[in-house]
Amino acid sequence: MEKRLFIGIEIIPSEDLLELILHLKQVLNNEGIKWVEPSNFHLTLMFLGNVSLAKIQIINKALMGVRSSHNLFEARLVNLGKFNYKGKTNVIWINFQDEGQIQKLAKDIITALSELGFCQTTESFKPHLTVARVKTKCNEDVLDYQINSSLNKVVQMISISEFCLFESILKPVGPIYKVIERYKLSEFN
């Protein structure tokens, strides 16, 4: 038996973040956009894919080692953005900013798990919170205006105290993310 897994950081949305999402839903008013449920907000550090139950304990041990070498840190969600695929927007996101801790954490996780046979590079890692997936088409002009008007606006401050191993359960109505294990970061190293 296997589970579909990823490693990430839970994001509990602030009122400001929820208001921004509501505003975007109103101005983009498009049925071709699938909005991420706020209860599913997270920052993906590494996607593992389908993993055998036997390998989860080995992953857990590796992640415990990573956890011990990282401290709590502060971050912020700032600026809207979009990813494009074949010239059209397919993801709407909010940028994740800190003082470099998230890049180091992701790099250490990727390094530790590459020793277990998981392959991913940090070169393409862009820390962000996905807020919507564009399924058909959205009004690019309105979206670009929203992106430009969000420049340098902090949407939410976040205290990062842990990262998690998640199971992603795919359902017809959308994914359910279940925390398998939490890895508390050190207060001081």
Which labels suit this protein?
single chain, four-stranded antiparallel β-sheet, Cyclic Phosphodiesterase, Chain: A, 9 strands, 189 residues, alpha+beta, 41% strand, five-stranded antiparallel β-sheet
Report on this model:
The protein has 189 residues and is of the alpha+beta class. It has one domain (2-184): Alpha-Beta Complex (Cyclic Phosphodiesterase, Chain: A). The chain has 4 helices and 9 strands. The strands form 2 sheets. The protein has a 5-stranded antiparallel beta sheet with strand order 2-6-5-4-7. A 4-stranded antiparallel beta sheet has the order 3-1-8-9, covered by helices on one side. α2 (53-67) crosses α3. The model has no long low-confidence stretch (mean pLDDT 92).
Short summary of the structure?
The chain is α+β, with helices and mostly antiparallel strands and 189 residues long.
CATH topology: Cyclic Phosphodiesterase, Chain: A
Strand order of the largest sheet: 2-6-5-4-7
CATH architecture: Alpha-Beta Complex
In the CATH hierarchy, what is the superfamily? Cyclic phosphodiesterase
Main sheet overview: 5 strands, antiparallel
Topology:
Layout: E1 2-10, H1 15-28, E2 33-35, E3 42-52, H2 53-67, E4 73-85, E5 88-97, H3 101-114, E6 128-134, H4 140-149, E7 154-160, E8 162-169, E9 176-184
Antiparallel strand pairs: 1-3, 1-8, 2-6, 4-5, 4-7, 5-6, 8-9
Helix pairs in contact: 2-3
